[in-house]
Design goal:
Arc Repressor Mutant, subunit A
Length: 162
């Protein structure tokens, strides 16, 4: 297993290092390069939004996974999307609520669940976060065909989601 830092949350996650199993030195170098470069650019890119909205990178990640064009996710769904515990999501929601970026409400479908609704201010913050990270990404300067090739490689990997 190899320990990596999540792009937005900064948390360390473990997963199998395929380069070690494959014995491929080039793959290993590529793996390290991708991890280091994406982590560096994400942290730098997020800095203006984190300062402006006075939130942490982890809270920004939660805001990122709340799609304003879809139904508000439950607390449990948000925990799954962010790979955090429900307690962490509750803590982040409290931070985001204090800044007027989200509101927790009772689910209209299941009265026992709470959902996280993004506010207009939260939508503005989310748009800024997405734009900052997307525009500063090393992938942003690639043509559609190159991006499609990368996506195809990742989709073809048995351990990557489609």
């Amino acid at each position: 297993m190899t320990k990596y830092r999540c792009l937005l949350t900064g948390k360390h996650v473990h997963f199998v290092c395929f380069s070690c199993r494959l014995g491929n030195e080039l793959f290993s170098k590529l793996e390290v390069l991708i991890r280091d470069r994406t982590s560096d650019y994400s942290n730098e890119a997020l800095a203006p939004a984190l300062r402006e909205y006075e939130i942490t990178a982890t809270a920004a990640h939660l805001l990122w996974v709340i799609d304003p064009n879809e139904p508000a996710p439950s607390m449990r769904t948000a925990a799954c999307r962010t790979h955090c515990t429900p307690q962490n999501v509750t803590f982040m929601c409290q931070q985001l609520e204090a800044r007027g970026l989200v509101e927790r409400r009772t689910s209209p479908i299941d009265q026992q669940q709470r959902v996280i609704e993004i506010t207009p201010r939260g939508r503005t913050a989310r748009d800024m976060i997405v734009a900052l990270v997307s525009n500063d990404s090393p992938l942003a300067r690639r043509q559609g065909s190159a991006l499609e090739s990368i996506a195809e490689i990742l989709r073809g990997h048995p351990h990557m989601p489609n």
